[in-house]
Amino acid sequence: MNRITVYERADFEGLSREFTCDVPDLHELDFGNCIASLKVVGQPWIAYTEPKYEGEPHAFEEGEYPSVERPNSFSALRLVHHDLVDPQITLYERPNFQGACKVVTEETNLAYGYFNDRVASHVVQRGVWLLYQHPGRGGWHCLAWPGERLADYKPELNFQARLSHLRPLRPGQPM
């Protein structure tokens, strides 16, 4: 059973709610913008800063989070239903899937190779990926979903070929 339990205070204190399916607007359940800690069982969840899965996404894999990076800012929750086993993404040097390409199947810090700050488009074959602007999971980040074909980072992500780190979400342990 996949579930997320959210708490209004750090260290799993205060009011709590448990969810087993997507919640497009936490405000409708009187729990919007008040999450300070959480626990995830099973598949990862994505918390969004705006209702209807808009705004900045934050990924939470299976585990306990006694404090969250942006407390009191989440307005929607989405369970990751996709198969996360055997992830794969292809990165391209130029827009429209042109130029040199690199197939990635695991967490990779691009700062140590040719593709650092040179990726301009991608195709996600499998898995859900977190793309980071800076090495070491730093800076602005976004999600890339299975089947996604992003032809140009500049207008779509405002990355302007500044991708330096990426990692696939890890699947939860089946119960």
TrEMBL record:
<comment type="similarity">
    <text>Belongs to the beta/gamma-crystallin family.</text>
</comment>
<feature type="domain" description="Beta/gamma crystallin 'Greek key'">
    <location>
        <begin position="87"/>
        <end position="126"/>
    </location>
</feature>
<dbReference type="Pfam" id="PF00030">
    <property type="entry name" value="Crystall"/>
</dbReference>
<protein>
    <submittedName>
        <fullName>EDSP protein</fullName>
    </submittedName>
</protein>
<dbReference type="GO" id="GO:0007601">
    <property type="term" value="P:visual perception"/>
</dbReference>
<feature type="domain" description="Beta/gamma crystallin 'Greek key'">
    <location>
        <begin position="43"/>
        <end position="81"/>
    </location>
</feature>
<dbReference type="InterPro" id="IPR050252">
    <property type="entry name" value="Beta/Gamma-Crystallin"/>
</dbReference>
<feature type="domain" description="Beta/gamma crystallin 'Greek key'">
    <location>
        <begin position="2"/>
        <end position="42"/>
    </location>
</feature>
<dbReference type="GO" id="GO:0002088">
    <property type="term" value="P:lens development in camera-type eye"/>
</dbReference>
<dbReference type="InterPro" id="IPR011024">
    <property type="entry name" value="G_crystallin-like"/>
</dbReference>
<keyword id="KW-0677">Repeat</keyword>
<dbReference type="GO" id="GO:0005212">
    <property type="term" value="F:structural constituent of eye lens"/>
</dbReference>
<dbReference type="InterPro" id="IPR001064">
    <property type="entry name" value="Beta/gamma_crystallin"/>
</dbReference>
